Amino acid sequence: MNTRSDLSPTGNAAGDIRNQDWYVDKFFQSAMFVCGISAIVFVIGIFIFVFKEGAGFIIQQMDWAEFFLSPKWRPTSATQATYGTLAMVAGTAAVTVISMAIALPFSFGAAIYIAEFAQGRTREWLKVIIEMLAAIPSVVWGFIGLMIMNPLIIESFDVPIGLNVLNAGIILGLMAAPIITSIAEDAFKAVPDTYREAAEALGATKWQVVYKVILPAAKNGLLSAALLGVGRAFGETMAVLMASGHALTIPGSVFDSIRALTATIAAELGETPVGSDHYQALFAIGIFLFTITFIINMTADFIVRGIKNQ
Amino acid sequence: MNIQENQPDIAIRTVSLNLWYGQFQALFDVNLEIKQGIITSMIGPSGCGKSTVLRSVDRINERLGYVRITGAINVLDKNIYDVDVDLAQLRKQVGMVFQRPNPLPISIYDNVIFGHRIHRPPGSKLHRDEEDGIVEAALRRVLLWDKVKDKLQRKATLDLSLEERQKLCIARLLPVKPAVLLMDEPCSALDPKGTAAVEDLIWELRGEYSILLVTHNMAQARRTSDECVFMLMGRVMEHSKTDDMFVTPTRRETADYIEGRYG
Question: How many structural domains is chain B composed of?
């Protein structure tokens, strides 16, 4: 038994004896292979499906200038339907910017505290609680936006409606914060401890160590954390739909209601005839979203790879 | 007495120093007098406490959080465990060189000026020319200037050899004018050529700084130090002139260790 694999030059061990071990081994190898490539299959499958549904519209009807530059989204107009996404793009962008303005300082601060200052128990508890934040379903966040933030914003800022850029931005910021925090914390943890020791031995205080050594060393990881946060905020649907007011306007201030790209698809897709122009236009938006989040994630991934190769 | 001269002969004096890592006692009643301006080496088998002594002198071992100490360590006649001791100030006086060269992931220039910038009084700013001068002087002192003068703004962790990195780590201590340099096996990661170069450098710095050097390498202790401390199981066994210790050790444990019967 124990001599057979030692002699095999290829390492493809027990090639000669097809006993039970051999079959079990082969079975699990194949099973794991299928699991491994299924991710690729699904991504390609989803892309093909979304593209197929939207392709006809993009190739034949779509006016590119109108799609990207017109704020008028009137898919149901009987006489002259227009498919402009500019207002939605502006809305999504505004909400994303506000959410990052809220999430980034908090998340990076939290990550610095957890990775560099917190000790033992505190650190473990904080990590668990922050991960719990990530587990709250988005419809619950939307509910909070609708029922708590809405009256709060109306009262605090004396504005007529609280379902607006600010509301959706705060909600999205809170939703993106746990992801940003945990990736940023990983980035800090990846900084070798010898750097901290070296800087402290030179007389640096903890804060000097953080901002003169740790932050520069972790900056790529932080950038990628921020990008993934942007991706999260950008692609979120339900909470935005509930908290943003769903009004088709280019926002002039944070107190304007907006409509997000994702929310438009969610709200309208169920009520359009399959295959109609409207239906296909919604899929065109889907392709647009898909492309942007894909680019964001790829960029984040390349940045992370950049760290490892340093 | 030499109180008025402000220059005590003893750079580091430990007084019945006991140290625990959690429940484990690593040092027992260590009394050492490390003289100023010379090189003192510490030898002994792994786990004998020589690095622990070293890392207590700039209190860097407190990073671990579970270290407890009784006794005193006086650096230039000031007990560094007094409540009024400023850690930053202590670490300005006492520079440390680590086993693995650990330049910071910033430019070579910034590495050298790092300590100086930290210890500058808040608000004061040095002219760029003055900083340039400080960096050049420090790099010249460690015989590294000619090799790196064209890439001062390159990241220090990128393309320096281990020997060059270790020299850089010594260079960055000099701008703040420390009195004591602690070296924790500074050559153990280097090849023989690098070891020779760094040993030469250590010898160069002799006189200007009081150097305490931990080493695993008895030949190195013999080559580079004026005095030698032999430690075993957390206790100081013997402390004498290096030549005396290697020729006529007074204790049997020392003789056995030097002759390689254990360790």
Answer: 1
